[in-house]
Design brief:
Shape: elongated
Number of helices: 13
Distance between the termini: 100 Å
Length: 333
């Protein structure tokens, strides 16, 4: 299964890889980058050229086995035998790649375990898969003694390696224990917040923090009984279990509501005053309209260019001057 890998800019300036590609005439650079995606988290892959070609260069006619051999010749990949299978690996894989932590562990054996086994077999001069029963009977006594000596040497090396590994594990365990002890010394034990009581009061720090938001101190003190009564009957702790923080938020919310209610009452009073003024103006306009109708209701009266007194004197009615003095004309009220 192909995986997402990283390609560093320095790879495109790899001179040995470029010269090997020119010499072989094979697309080694593209193939090498494609092999990154075929490796597991340890940089290992099964040496199966036809299968690898399907993942790396599916549309090319190049023989991918030749590509792998060319990369092996310049040391960019290595090939070894493990569990009867041919395995390939990129020696510098972990130096340039950062596999995802959730990626599955490698299922392919490493080269080191197989190399040690091969060394033991080669020094003994025989391969267990190829040596038959008849051939094993013809081995001389000297060869048997050499084999036994080498086997004891290998056993001693294995035991020595296991002791070193065990000592390393013990050292790592001690280091982890030291880190754990230092961590436990720095961690403060959990302190449960006190429950609400009938004599609960906010501390001075909380009061100062609230006062810094322009909330009067007397308003803060007046909020304490209501806050105390609420949490005495709530049967639970506030979010976070801190009554001081809960009181701060409660007072800020109550103060905002108080300011909002005050502004609404002020706007309602101004609106009532405006409505009464409009009523007075409307009443005055109705009075002016009545006076205008009264002036123009006399037969033959022409008001253009004449004052109210002149109209009254010219009408012939004895009570007109009194009416003209009472009713304001245009521009006189």
């Amino acid at each position: 299964m192909a995986r997402i890998r990283t390609v560093k800019p320095e790879l495109f300036r790899h001179e040995d890889l470029f010269e090997a590609e020119i010499e072989s005439g094979l697309p080694l650079r593209l193939a090498f980058i494609g092999l990154f995606t075929c490796c597991d988290r340890e940089g290992r892959f099964e040496w199966r050229p036809r299968q690898l070609k399907l993942d790396v260069m599916p549309y090319d006619t190049t023989d991918f086995s030749h590509v792998l051999d060319a990369l092996e010749r310049i040391g960019l990949v290595e090939k070894y035998l493990a569990d009867g299978r041919e395995i390939g690996c990129i020696p510098t894989f972990l130096k340039h790649q950062c596999p995802n932590a959730r990626e599955a562990k490698s299922k392919l054996p490493p080269k080191e375990s197989n190399a040690h086994a091969s060394t033991c077999i080669n020094d003994a001069g025989q391969n267990p898969e190829e040596v038959s029963v008849s051939e094993s009977q013809e081995v001389s006594t000297s060869t048997d003694s050499e084999t036994q000596t080498h086997a004891r040497t290998c056993t001693h090396m294995h035991a020595h390696g296991e002791r070193e590994l065990e000592g390393e594990r013990e050292g790592n365990t001690q280091q982890l224990q030291q880190h754990a002890n230092r961590f436990s010394e720095n961690v403060q034990p959990y302190q449960q917040q006190p429950e609400m009581s009938e004599d609960w009061n906010p501390d001075e720090t909380t009061v100062r923090r609230i006062a810094m938001t322009s909330v009067p101190e007397d308003f803060i003190r007046n909020c304490i009984p209501e806050f105390r009564a609420y949490w005495l009957t709530a049967g639970r702790l506030p979010h976070g279990g801190n009554f001081q923080t809960a009181f701060l938020k409660s007072v800020q919310k109550a103060w905002a509501k108080h300011l909002n209610d005050t502004n609404q009452r002020g706007n309602g009073h101004a609106g009532s005053q405006l409505s009464s003024r409009e009523a007075e103006l409307r009443k005055a306009n109705e009075s002016t309209d009545w006076a205008q109708k009264f002036r123009t209701g006399f037969p033959g009266a022409d008001t253009d260019g004449h004052s109210d007194d002149q109209l009254a004197l010219g009408s012939g009615h004895s009570d007109i001057p009194e009416v003209a003095g009472i009713v304001p004309g245009p521009g006189r009220h």
